[in-house]
Write a structure and sequence with these properties.
A hairpin with a 7-residue loop joins β1 and β2. This protein has one domain: Porin (Beta Barrel), CATH 2.40.160.20. It is elongated and about 55 Å long. The chain is built from two helices and twelve strands. The protein is mainly β. Strands 1, 2, 3, 4, 5, 6, 7, 8, 9, 10, 11 and 12 form a twelve-stranded antiparallel sheet that branches.
């Protein structure tokens, strides 16, 4: 499993460092809708799909579902999550982003051997870069950022000791424009 993760990380780094940015076609030829998913988050058992809508050349909103099933020493997350995001392009390729993640999470405590259902809210601030590929139909979007836990209604024992907030978020998205 470690060798698969290492190979995936090396492939992502190669793409990020070795691929030159392609010049975009005229913005008018781009579709306003796209769908994307994370290449990095499944490594930690977070699965998400973004539906993106490009309002104009500089502004984009996103929404979509996510499921978090990561495990810590004392608990396992089972969070059904909604993604709500805004991306502002400061150049044709560079963006700043903000996302919030309201979620219903049935946290399983390995300490009490019981579920702790409740609501939570996380947020992320990111800086991204978009590489347009395949005649502008496919894109690669690395967007590292910082994630913050804002609210947790029913945390299990040791939750606050094990959850890091703020936390570095190594997000890399791949997507398709319609």
């Amino acid at each position: 499993m470690k060798s698969v993760r290492l190979a995936m990380l090396l492939a992502i780094l190669f793409l990020m460092l070795g691929a030159p940015p392609l010049e975009a076609q005229e913005h008018a030829s781009r579709s306003k809708w796209s769908v994307s998913t994370s290449l990095t988050f499944p490594i930690v058992r977070i699965y998400q799909v973004y539906f993106n809508y490009r309002i104009d050349d500089r502004n984009e909103v996103s929404f979509g579902p996510a499921f978090q099933n990561f495990r810590h020493e004392s608990f396992t997350s089972n969070a059904y999550t909604l993604i709500l995001g805004y991306r502002r392009y400061v150049t044709d390729h560079v963006s700043v982003e903000a996302e919030i993640y309201p979620a219903y999470n049935r946290l399983y405590s390995h300490v009490t051997e019981s579920y702790h259902p409740g609501w939570e809210l996380w947020a992320e601030a990111k800086v991204g870069y978009t590489w347009n590929l395949a005649d502008d139909r496919i894109f690669l979007h690395p967007a590292p950022g910082i994630g913050f836990g804002i609210y947790q209604s029913n945390p299990p024992p040791s939750f606050h000791d094990e959850i890091e907030s703020p936390i570095f978020v190594p997000q890399v998205l791949v997507g398709v424009r319609f």
